[in-house]
Write a structure and sequence with these properties.
Length: 144
């Protein structure tokens, strides 16, 4: 895979810092569900930035744990990607956009689920960067 341009890496780092502060709690809080088996934390794996080419796929998985740190294997999670630099299905399979972009795209794959306390959600995410593919542009289109 190709390396990202330094400016894009800086934008990704800034975007990731802002997104992390907005989306992800520092960890389970004491106010979360006290019952055994209630979700208390969630982590998306892999949790490192993925640099991908148009059409490439990456499987993400969610690890959900209760307050005691036990894995909750049957937790029903919801996947999303923002902005739409690709698609992700209910199993965590992300496919980099098949659209022909004129720029490198940066997005966040996010996994969420209810926290066991009414109205609270747990979430975690990972950055994805999609390389610009000039070969998909028609002749002259990339010159605009």
């Amino acid at each position: 895979m190709r390396a990202l341009a330094p400016a894009l890496v800086a934008v990704a780092a800034l975007f990731g810092t802002v997104a992390a502060a907005q989306l992800w709690p520092a960890g389970p809080s004491a106010s979360q569900a006290d019952g055994d088996g209630a979700p208390a934390s969630i982590e998306v794996i892999p949790h490192v930035e993925q640099v991908m080419e148009r059409g490439q796929a990456q499987r993400f998985r969610a690890v959900v744990r209760d307050r005691a740190g036990r894995a909750l294997e049957d937790a029903k999670v919801m996947w999303s990607v923002t902005p739409r630099v690709g698609t992700i299905d209910a199993t965590g399979l992300f496919v980099a956009t098949s659209a022909c972009l004129r720029w490198d795209g940066i997005g966040i794959v996010t996994v969420t689920l209810p926290a066991g306390v009414r109205g609270q959600m747990l979430s975690d995410g990972a950055l994805v960067a999609i390389h610009y593919d000039p070969s998909c542009l028609t002749v002259g289109e990339g010159e605009r």
